[in-house]
Amino acid sequence: IPQAPTGYKSGFIGIIGRPNVGKSTLMNQLVGQKIAITSPVAQTTRNRLQGILTTPEAQLIFVDTPGIHKPHHQLGEVLVRNARIAIDSVDVILFVVDGAQPAGGGDRFIVDLLSRTENPVILGINKIDQQTDSQQLDRTYEELIAPYQWRIVKFSAFTKEGLDELLQLLVTHLEPGPYYYPPDLVTDQPERFIMGELIREQILLLTREEVPHSVAVTIDRVEEDTTITRVLATIHVERDSQKGILIGKGGTMLKAIGSAAREQMQKLIAGKVYLELFVKVQPKWRQSRFRLSELGYRV
Ligand code: GDP
Ligand code: K
Ligand code: MG
């Protein structure tokens, strides 16, 4: 890693918020590449993952977290605990809310968590492209954080409106520091992990409610040829019925998942991809710490 110029700033920014407020979409836009998958389904993001933006004046390392919610099973507890750790292991907190909806109980729960941190907190009101009565909606968030001296910024992760102002504000909160990562790196995640996530994203987007939460994906083999990259992957589900849904009539669902994921992978590696998908039933993987860590989740 090269040495940063004098006066250079750097630091870690924790992106915290309820599920579906747009945390992962925001991180992708800020770093300029799709490194975190996004979908309208809560719990799309399962892992803590970092997106790195290196500008001439600062290196900003965004820590995307799973949305904070009340846990119902082993995986849920792991998710919330990781979010709590993230709050204190960063330099600045970006608390993201959905500005298209009034503040709710989920946001209040997070404000309570954040009230104990010594780190500076910025309230980011996202989805301003969808706000109908912005004054009314914003007021609910101003009231929510009234006891605290937190700065407020408004933006749309979707249209990028307001993101420059957000970046400027974030940089003012950073201390002088080194390059933590090489300036050309955009994420701490290995390409293989992102490939697995791109498959999981298509499952979230294409299948019914009950399937997505019990799915995990492993990349079993990646073979790079001069002209094409061959990827072998397995989708792990908990029940035979879920396997049936994933494969679909005559294999149509699996084919749809595969071809959409393949397209995304081609963008990721900027080259041709051949993707082969398998589906395997693995009862109760969500209850097992061992299985979770084996599948790549930090437990
Ligand atoms: P996360 O759970 O907080 O990481 O949220 P995601 O990034 O997965 O986004 C959840 C949903 O909100 C997705 O369908 C996104 O396309 C959508 N979304 C995110 N940001 C915006 C935004 O600024 N405007 C609009 N209209 N939709 C957004
Ligand atoms: K989501
Ligand atoms: Mg997310």
TrEMBL record:
Cellular compartments annotated: Cytoplasm; Cell membrane
Membrane spanning residue stretches: none
Pfam families for the chain: KH_2 (PF07650), MMR_HSR1 (PF01926)
Domain spans labelled Era-type G: 9-176
Annotated spans, G5: 155-157
UniProt xrefs under SUPFAM superfamilies: P-loop containing nucleoside triphosphate hydrolases (SSF52540), Prokaryotic type KH domain (KH-domain type II) (SSF54814)
Record keyword Ribosomal protein present: no
Membrane topology of the entry: Peripheral membrane protein
Subunit structure: Monomer.
Similarity section: Belongs to the TRAFAC class TrmE-Era-EngA-EngB-Septin-like GTPase superfamily. Era GTPase family.
Superkingdom: Bacteria
Region entry G4, spans: 126-129
Protein name, per record: GTPase Era
Region feature G2, mapped onto this chain: 43-47
Residue stretches making up the KH type-2 domain: 207-283
Function: An essential GTPase that binds both GDP and GTP, with rapid nucleotide exchange. Plays a role in 16S rRNA processing and 30S ribosomal subunit biogenesis and possibly also in cell cycle regulation and energy metabolism.
Ligand binding (GTP): 17-24, 64-68, 126-129
Chain intervals for the UniProt region annotation (G1): 17-24
Region of interest (G3), ranges: 64-67
Alphabetized UniProt keyword annotations: Cell membrane, Cytoplasm, GTP-binding, Membrane, Nucleotide-binding, Ribosome biogenesis, RNA-binding, rRNA-binding
